[in-house]
């Protein structure tokens, strides 16, 4: 699970890199990486669901959409 600091570090790193880079391919790569990381790695609290034992199951947007089965 990402730490609370990751939500700050990722946009700052993206802004810093995009400020110095003039290559469009770098901007596209950063955008795809950010979207991938959000959908497959970021556990979203509002998407959690209770399992059979009554415990909360943490889920990412990709898990909620059925694209992945684990983080």
Write the H/E string, N to C: HHEEH
Query: Which runs of at least 5 residues are low in confidence (pLDDT < 50)?
Result: none
In percent terms, what proportion of residues is strand? 5-15%
**Given the C-alpha coordinates, what overall shape results?**
elongated
Radius of gyration: 15 Å
* Overall number of domains: 1
Class from secondary-structure proportions: mainly alpha
Helix content: 40-55%
Largest sheet: 2 strands, antiparallel
The neighbouring-strand order within the major sheet is: 1-2
H/I helix tally: 3
Instruction: Determine the mean pLDDT.
Output: 78
Amino-to-carboxy terminus distance: 8 Å
- Count every beta strand, where a strand is a DSSP E run of 2 or more residues: 2
How does this structure look, described?
The protein is mainly alpha-helical and 71 residues long. The chain has one domain (6-64). It is 52% helix and 6% strand. It contains three helices and two strands; from the N terminus they run ααββα. The chain has helices spanning 6-20, 24-41, 61-64, and strands spanning 49-50, 56-57. A two-stranded antiparallel sheet has the order 1-2. Strand 1 and strand 2 form a beta hairpin. Helix 1 runs antiparallel to helix 2 (24-41). The radius of gyration is 15 Å and the shape is elongated. The mean pLDDT is 78.
């Amino acid at each position: 699970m990402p730490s609370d600091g990751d939500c700050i570090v990722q946009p700052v790193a993206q802004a810093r890199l995009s400020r110095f880079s003039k290559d469009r391919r770098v901007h596209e790569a950063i955008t795809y990486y950010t979207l991938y990381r959000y959908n497959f790695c970021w556990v979203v609290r509002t998407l959690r669901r209770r399992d059979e034992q009554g415990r909360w199951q943490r889920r990412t947007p990709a898990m909620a959409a059925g694209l992945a089965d684990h983080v």
